[in-house]
C-alpha cells in the first residue's frame, strides 16, 4: 500500500525524472523504485508510476514488491482479471505476503463482495505485525456493509495505533452518530482528550455531540477549547455561533460567524446565519442585507432564496415573496421546496389555480411530506373542488395510511358535500383511532362538530376508550 507522501522529492525521484528527460538509463535499487512509485501514486501521477513500474521490473524482474505495486495500479484502473492472474503467480512465490491478501480484498471490494473482502483482510492480519492499514480497510468494508459496530471497533484500533490519525477519529465519531450513541461518543472523545488535551479536532467533535444532545453550555465550552487549540479553526467558530444562537446570544453568535468571514473567503452559510440572528433581534434591514449577500455569494443555495421568501411571507408581503420564489424557480425549476413555498404564497394570494399547479408540481418532483398533501387538499377545498380534495387526500393516504388527520379531514369534506354516510364512516374510524384529534376537526368543521349525531359518536367513543 502507498506510503505517506513526502513534502519534497527525494534524490531518487529527482534522478529518475532527470533520466526521463534524457536518453540515458540509470540503475536504481528495487527499494528506490518503490519509493519513486509510492511518490507518484500519492500525488495522483499514475502514468509516471506505471512508467517507473515498467522500468523497475526491467531492472528487477524478480521483485515481488514491484509486482505488487503493478497489481495495485491494475486494481486502481479496474483491470481486475489481469490483477488476479498476477496475484495467483505471486501467491505461488510468497503465500505469506499480507499485501497479496490486501490486493485480493480490494478486488472483491470493487466487485461489491464485501464479505469476501473482510475474510481476506482478516487473513492478512495473520501475516503482519503492522496491522494499522488493514484495520482501516476493514473499517471501510464494514461501513459498506452497514455494520457500524464492527466498523467503529476497527477505526478505534487505528486511532489507538496513531492518535494523530484524524481520518479514523472522524470515522469513529461517525459510527457513534449513526448508531445514535451520542453518550458513547462523548465518553470516547473525553477519554481521547485526556491523552490529547490540545487536539482541536476532538474538541470540535465533542462540541457537536453536546449540541446534538442540546447540552449547550457544554458544547460552548468544547468549541472554546477548540478555538484555544487553533485560533484559525473556522469550523469551531461556526459551530460556536450556532450554539450561541440557540442560547439567544445573537450578538456573540454574529461575532463568531463574522470571524469565519475574516479567516477565509466568505461563505453563503455564514451570511445566512448572520441574517437569521439579525432577524431574531428584530433588525430587519441588517437581516435583509445578509440574506441578499447569501444568494449573491451562492445563487444555487436553496436555503438562501427560501429564507428571503419566508422573510417577506411572514411580513404579509406576498407579492414580494412571490417575486423571490420565482427568481429561485428560474435558477432551479426542479427544486420541490421552491414549488411548495410557491403553493403557500399563491394560496395566501387566493390564486388557487396557481396554488394547485404548484402543489401538484411539488408532488411530481418527489416531495411526499404529509403537510404537502394536506395543503394541496386545502387549496382544492378553498376552490370548491371537494371531489378533487378527497382524491388528493386518498393519494396521501397511500403514503400515510395510519394518519388520523387525513381521515378527520376526509370526514369533514364528505359532510360538506352532504354525504353523511361516508362522513359518518370516516368520522367513526377517526374517533376510534384517535379521540383527541376531534379537537382539530372541531376547529376546521365547527358547523358539524356540535350536531347531535356527531356528539353522540364522540360520547360513544369516550365510553369505549374508558372501558
Automatic annotation (TrEMBL):
Recorded superkingdom: Bacteria
Matches recorded under Pfam families: TPR_2, TPR_6, TPR_8
TPR repeat start and end residues: 98-131, 132-165, 234-267, 268-301, 302-335
Coiled coil residues, start to end: 73-103
Database matches in SMART domains: TPR
Keyword set, alphabetical order: Coiled coil, Repeat, TPR repeat
InterPro entries found in the cross-reference section: TPR-like_helical_dom_sf (IPR011990), TPR_2 (IPR013105), TPR_rpt (IPR019734), Ycf3 (IPR050498)
Protein's name according to its UniProt entry: Tetratricopeptide repeat protein
